[in-house]
What does this fold into?
Amino acid sequence: MVYAYRMPIAEKTVRQSVSLPARVARRVKSLAKTTSTSANRVIVDLIESGIEAREQEKKRFFDLADRLAHSRDADEQKRLKAELARLTFGE
It folds into this structure.
């Protein structure tokens, strides 16, 4: 059979064993049940969301650092320093 378009290539999967605390495992199973998906799919989605959130947080940090480096306003510099401190050390 000849296709006029390229068929998508499935991303290679790697089998990984992960131990979850019982409380987390119950929540994963509950999410899987309510969304009619597998627990594996829920775990993958949560990991991907977490990675994306970390990348966005890192980007936000560097954007704020860049704004601080280019800011001439003392009040804005103070605010940006406080925001960078919060991102770095938490609230």
